[in-house]
Amino acid sequence: MKSRIIVAIVALMLSGGAVKAAGPLGSADAKVAFNRLKTLAGEWESKSPDGNTARLRYQVVSGGSAVVEHFVDDRMGEANAMVTVYYLDGGRLLLSHYCMAGNQPRMQAEAFDASTGELRFSFLDATGLASPGAGHMHNARLRFVDADHFTTQWEFVEAGKSKFTESAEYSRVR
Predict the structure, then answer these.
(1) Structural domains present in the chain
(2) Average pLDDT score over the chain
(3) Cβ proximity of 152 and 137 under 8 Å
(4) Backbone angle region of 50, left / alpha / beta, with phi > 0 → left and psi within -120 to 50 → alpha
(5) What pTM value is reported for the model?
């Protein structure tokens, strides 16, 4: 019986019917996505319907090996600004998010669609979590609309469940 199952699995794989497991971007796609992130260098702004203003500043640093994102909005103030660093680690595109929640989740790029401009990150691990179920940013998406516009979506997870998602549309200031 075991040998029949193994033969069926091998036949399915050879026929092209195997489903690829979710995983990180390939090395070439990771580099393309990282280069796209570098184009964000500069200052950006988002205004929410309630009148809140959020600002992002992107800087390419360390000889082009990292992109630093500095985030602040009117509600939280500069003292609670958050920083996210995007970088390549071998063939993987990673981010480390230094959150006002006092933890530092790392995420790995899982997908980049150059035709739609969507870049998706998924939780990899974290430092600074008070417990395994402590609240933290867990997933992130960026969508590059054009040279002067992009959107973000960050999902906060607590006790293994999505607690909220923050979405914003940014326009280049300079």
Answers:
(1) 24-172 (2.40.128.20)
(2) 88
(3) no
(4) alpha
(5) 0.85
